[in-house]
Specification:
Strand content: over 45%
Number of strands: 8
Structural class: alpha+beta
CATH superfamily: Ganglioside GM2 activator
Mean pLDDT: 85
Shape: globular
Number of domains: 1
Length: 183
């Protein structure tokens, strides 16, 4: 489930506050997704990702959670941004969230993911914790970014998502994307 939460976050995080009153058109390009060594001890997954338009994506997949996850584990999400002109990218941290798994489920997962997932997946309810080993699926989850275009900002984005225990990262992934204006 961490991987799916990460994927959703990947598409949601470029929508950061813009200082402009205009609403220009943007395009989000997925650049890379790297899984941390050791992640296979905690999760197995496969998914498909179809870009429907510049800001809309459809996702389906399966996630097998291999260990029980409770408050002895944590979730860390870090979002960083770099200007498009930076080569190589010089990322500046914009957001960092660290929460025990059960707190994460009751807050971030509940506020940003649960309503969109409950009808297209068998993902657990936000009050479920600990999360016992299980097989989860999601089918035709649609992320519609058009509603958030006013918040977009051009740049390179890096999202890091980790499963932690006692301050050590055990599993996770890093994704990069580019947001550009479309004429």
């Amino acid at each position: 489930m961490l991987k799916f939460v990460y994927l959703i976050g990947f598409f949601a995080v470029p929508f950061v506050t813009s200082s402009s009153n205009e609403t220009p058109n943007y395009d989000i390009q997925f650049i890379s997704l790297e899984t941390m060594e050791g992640s296979e001890t905690y999760f197995e997954y496969n998914y498909t990702l179809d870009k429907q338009s510049e800001l809309t994506f459809k996702m389906s997949g399966n996630i097998r959670q291999l260990v029980q996850l409770g408050d002895d584990y944590g979730v860390t999400l870090t979002l960083s941004r770099s200007d498009l002109a930076d080569d190589p990218p010089v990322y500046e941290e914009m957001m960092n969230i660290n929460k025990p798994v059960c707190d994460y489920m009751k807050t971030i997962y509940r506020m940003y993911f649960y309503d969109g997932l409950k009808d297209v997946s068998n993902f657990p309810h936000y009050e479920t914790c600990p999360l016992v080993p299980a097989e989860y699926w999601f089918k035709d989850y649609i992320f519609e970014g058009e509603d958030f275009a006013v918040f977009l900002r051009e740049g390179r984005f890096k999202l890091e998502c980790y499963l932690t225990k006692e301050g050590e990262s055990l599993a996770g992934c890093i994704s990069t994307s580019t947001v550009t204006k479309v004429d």
